[in-house]
Design goal:
The complex is a heterodimer of chains A (647) and B (67). With 647 residues, chain A is mostly helical. In chain A, 79% of the residues lie in helices and 1% in strands. Chain A has 26 helices and two strands. Chain A has a two-stranded antiparallel ribbon. A two-stranded antiparallel ribbon of chain B has the order 1-2. The longest helix of chain B is centred in the middle third of the chain and has 22 residues, at 17-38. Classes of the chains: A mainly alpha (647), B mainly alpha (67). Chain A binds chain B through residues 52, 135-136, 139, 146, 153-154, 156-158, 160-161, 163, 218-223, 319, and chain B through 10-11, 13, 19, 32-34, 36-37, 40-43, 47-50, 52-53.
Chain lengths: 647, 67
């Protein structure tokens, strides 16, 4: 790979595009004589993502939710302009509401929703002394954001920013290869480590924000998005089927086991359709060993998910819409979202009191920044890491802004000199943003956004050191306040989050067993459960063994919930055709979590399959038999987990 | 005869006619997307982003000239 000064060429082109778009947006905003022209540059900094799809998705959410934020600003200011205490409480409540809503979403959608929250700060709170200007400020803000978006879109299109779909199809293909390698290792009798399975699920579900950004990238976006969603769901299904095979004794059907491993490893000469037929016959043998039938069932499942993933990746590359529609919903903890919302509310109220007591000028700017930091930290993967990065990035941004304004520019008023003066800081921050290290990348992003805020380029530039010092001081104070708030007010440790995730998984399983149908299709519910395990895997536990135990427990619940959903689906398909009493027994056995009764229902279905079934009924009946036996096997294999689940 | 551009005033703030044209062009472009996918517009050009940007500018120019 071609490198310059330690960074690959792609990082340099990204940095140059960002700088170019920032300067173009500033130039246009100056030319249009917009009030807050510097926010056009800030918009470019916020939207500077490495692919077109991601940047466009973020831009659309930013623009639409800024409009929502401006409307909220007008309402809040209209209601409470004469009562400042209520004004601050209303702003804090609005921010808390947006943080809660953002906590239930992911990626750019979550960031967009919290933008609606802190837009009120920059539109209404900074105009607290002149509420008659709020509408004008809102329109001006919308205009500078539109200019920033247009500049970035133009530069990205003309200078050929990478397409998200090409990068994503590469990631999905690589992921598919890793899942296959994992499955082959399990089939070759290696033991399954729950951390490995959970990490695979985490990496697959982490692609969700990118998948949702595909839609907006081009005219083929809908088809590509549908194909990518299908591929992700199939990969989750493949990991789930591999986990099921790993639970069975490694001595089960050794010849079929190695044939399946060869088929997955694409060994030439291995006939997939013959293997599939063989497995189907094994599954439907009336006197088969229970483990053999279960192995055959999950092996078939693994093969079909593998084929589905392969086909979906090909569809993504060919812009084809896959035949089945999947939604890939995500799991988000409502408790964590509510806690973040309350914390955001309290952070704003406490900081407003402190800023008022301090009596500093520009205090409203500090209050606005507190809102920004607390809201953005709430939707970051790790809020504490985000604020820790901000504590490093904001002083750096302040230093760079000071050096640029008073040492490099030092009184000049020509635009080309401003562009050249800003170049080192913008290019450096953008280059840091491209690094794989999450902490350094986060610092790079924050410098990219807060450097133009603190420099605040204007036409003409006022070069007022007092203003600069106050703004920098308030920005650093705001970060310190949010840092203190995050550690003291309703802190949510990883340990606590782990308990929430496990509790919610158990509660949902209890509801499922009690017969309450999920509002998601089986594939969608499987993806959502995988997302929960992915979040669990991302948390740091006290020690490795505890983490392994938690993940094992979560994977057991994940496997059992998948089996229970399949049983309910196939029993639903058989209803009306089969003896209602038999199907009712199936539901009751599942609700009672009773392995012997599940086996009895399976045996009764086997007996009726031999005599009474027509061709249409045969496939769902055999699927139901396999899943009933599988559920019974899981109950026997995990008695301790089962007792917690039904408690 | 002079071309009269449509004017929009929201809450006493005058919105430039260009903004209305740009917004309408985005809307028309969004409505055209399924058709573009149907005719494999993406595959007809070496650089689909530039082709789509050009199409947007053509729509914008047509709106300005015709309305």
């Amino acid at each position: 790979m071609l490198k310059f000064a330690g960074f690959p060429l792609s990082a340099w082109t990204f940095a140059l595009r960002t700088w170019g778009a920032m300067m173009l947006s500033l130039y246009v905003a100056f030319w249009l004589q917009l009030e807050n022209a510097s926010f056009a540059a800030v918009t470019v900094g916020i939207l500077s993502l490495q692919t077109r799809g991601q940047a466009y998705q973020k831009a659309v959410y930013r623009l639409l939710l800024t409009v929502v934020g401006v409307i909220a600003s007008i309402i809040i200011a209209g209601l409470f302009a004469q009562a400042r205490d209520l004004f601050v409480i209303a702003y804090a409540s609005w921010l808390g509401l947006c943080v809660y809503a953002g906590g239930l979403l992911d990626g750019n959608r979550a960031a967009g929703v919290v933008i609606a929250g802190f837009t009120v700060a920059f539109v209404a709170v900074v105009q607290i002394d002149s509420p008659q200007n709020i509408f004008l400020t809102g329109v001006d803000r919308g205009a500078v954001i539109a200019v920033g978006i247009a500049a970035l879109a133009l530069v990205n299109d003309v200078f050929l920013a990478p397409n998200l779909h090409t990068i994503l199809s590469g990631k999905l293909a690589a992921m598919h290869e890793r899942v296959r390698t994992f499955a082959v290792a399990i089939l070759r009798s290696e033991s399954a480590d729950p951390i490995q399975s959970a990490n695979l699920l985490r990496e697959i579900t982490a692609l969700h924000p990118d998948i949702s950004a595909l839609v907006i990238e081009s005219s083929a976006g809908w088809a590509r998005g549908a194909a990518a969603r299908t591929a992700a769901v199939a990969l989750v299904g493949e990991v789930s089927a591999t986990g099921a095979l790993a639970s069975l004794p490694s001595s089960t059907l050794p010849s079929l086991r190695s044939a399946l491993a060869r088929a997955l490893a694409d060994v030439p000469g291995e006939d997939g359709s013959a293997l599939r037929l063989h497995l189907q016959q094994r599954m439907q043998l009336e006197d088969a060993n229970p483990h053999d039938a279960l192995f055959a069932c999950h092996a078939l499942n693994l093969l079909s998910e593998d084929q589905r993933a392969q086909k979906a990746i090909e569809d993504l590359e060919a812009d084809r819409r896959p035949p089945c529609h999947v939604r890939t919903p995500i799991y988000r903890s409502r408790r964590a979202a509510a806690r973040n919302a309350v914390r955001a509310f309290l952070a704003v109220v406490i900081s407003a009191i402190l800023f008022t007591l301090g009596g500093w000028p520009f205090a409203s700017f500090g209050l606005a920044l507190v809102g920004t930091f607390v809201a953005l930290s709430a939707v970051a993967p790790s809020p504490r890491m985000f604020v820790a990065s901000a504590a490093v990035a904001i002083p750096i941004a302040a230093l760079l802004a000071g050096v640029t304004e008073f040492l490099i520019l030092d009184g000049v008023d020509q635009f080309p000199l401003l562009a050249i003066g800003m170049a080192p800081s913008v290019l450096g921050a953008a280059l840091l943003f491209t690094l794989p290290n999450a902490r350094i990348s986060s610092i790079g992003f924050l410098v990219l956004v807060y450097f133009p805020i603190l420099l605040s380029p204007a036409n003409p530039q006022d070069y007022n050191p007092e203003t600069f010092l106050y703004r920098s001081f308030l920005a650093i104070t705001a970060v310190i306040m949010v840092f203190a708030v995050l550690w003291t007010i309703l802190p949510a440790s990883d340990d606590l989050r782990r308990r929430w995730h496990l509790t919610s998984a158990r509660a949902e399983l209890r509801k499922l067993l009690a017969g309450r149908r999920s509002r998601y299709q089986d594939d969608d519910a499987l993806f959502r459960d995988a997302d929960r395990i992915g979040q669990l895997a991302a948390l740091q536990a006290a020690d490795g063994d505890e983490r392994r135990d938690d993940l094992r427990q979560a994977l057991n619940i994940f496997g059992f919930a998948a089996a229970a959903r399949r049983i309910q689906t196939v029993l639903g398909q058989l209803s009306g055709r089969r003896d209602a009493h038999l199907l009712g027994d199936g539901y009751a056995a599942l609700a009672d979590y009773s392995a012997p009764r599940l086996r009895e229902v399976a045996a009764a279905l086997v007996a009726s399959a031999a005599t009474q079934l027509d061709q249409d009924e045969e496939a769902p009946a055999w699927a139901a038999i396999a899943d009933l036996n599988w559920a019974a096997f899981l109950i026997d294999a995990n008695p301790s987990v089962s007792s917690q689940q039904v408690s | 005869m002079m071309h009269r551009f449509p004017e929009l005033t929201i809450g006493g703030v005058f919105i430039a006619p260009f903004v209305i044209y740009a917004g309408a062009a985005i809307l028309i472009f969004a409505l055209l997307r399924p058709i573009l996918h149907l005719v494999a517009f993406d595959r007809a050009f070496i650089s689909p982003p530039i082709a789509e940007l050009s199409l947007y500018i053509v729509i914008l120019a047509l709106l300005i000239v015709l309305f």
